[in-house]
Amino acid sequence: MAALFPRAARMIELLELGRTSRYLDVGFGTGAFAELLSARAGMATAPILLDVTAREGRPDVLAWPERLPFRDGTFDAITAFHVLRGLDDDAVHAFAEELARLLAPGSAALVVEFAPVRWRALDELHGRILAGGCAQVDLRGWGRLAALFTECGFDAIDLVELGPYALPPVPRVSVLLRRRPA
After folding, report:
1. What pLDDT digit, counting tens, does each position of 5-64 carry?
2. Alpha-carbon distance 179 to 71, whole Å?
3. Global pTM value
4. Which CATH number belongs to the domain containing residue 72 in this structure?
5. For the chain, which has fewer Cβ within 10 Å, the N-terminal or C-terminal residue?
6. Is the alpha carbon torsion for 164, 170, 171, 175 positive or negative?
7. Is residue 78 assigned to a domain?
8. Which of 60, 11, 80 is nearest to 40 (CA)?
9. Under a CB-based contact definition with an 8 Å cutoff, are residues 51 and 82 in contact?
């Protein structure tokens, strides 16, 4: 797990997990990394694990990313690791609107996704490797993600550096989405 996300301490710092109590992880799997982040941050409560597929694991909630079943301002921190590649642009924009709706004032969401490269053949190979049940994989870079997240209700959208990543050796793009304190 550490090889996949070598910057756990930086993620905890960006999300201020040590000071938060309500943490949501949106993903395609077990939520093991969110639990690791929560434990390393010393959080008293475990994260709520939302899965967007009916795979194995321990999700607390199963839901569409475009319609998350929580009240406005419910969470102090949200993570979404490698979820966007299987969604079309409309779904990504709707998911971003949901993230903005769910974030409490002064909180943040961290979105990490595989990114494209400038060589089309390598992008196609990465897409096949990363498909994992997705009908189609769309690798988006910072520019496309920033455009999709714009006008969704965030007060700041920042590109953050969390690499390098050893496994798999595919570039990532990491975006911190923040809400201004009340």
Report:
1. 568 889 999 999 988 789 999 987 778 889 989 999 999 999 998 887 766 666 677 788
2. 16
3. 0.89
4. 3.40.50.150
5. C
6. negative
7. yes
8. 11
9. no
